Amino acid sequence: MSDEQRVDSGERKSFKPRTNKFFRKKVCKFCVGKAAMDYKNAESLKRFVSDNGKILPRRITGTCASHQRALTREIKRARTIAVLPFAGK
Description:
- This protein is mainly alpha-helical.
- It has a domain at about 40-80: CATH 4.10.640.10.
- Helix content is about 35%, strand content about 0%.
- The chain is elongated and about 70 Å long.
């Protein structure tokens, strides 16, 4: 298709140039602080659960893989004994 045949359906969107921002690598809070996770401590587990009640992924929380698995297990235990809700607010 040549340029003459192309029909412009409005203005083109202008894209903002990317700014080079420095992003700090997230560090696992359990590895660094040697903090113990416990299913009975609802306040510490709420930081790793979204407002809808979903468990937040590693890329957002910054936990390592082994601690993310353990954290998921503790959140599910807390939900089972009704320390944390299954659904959000």
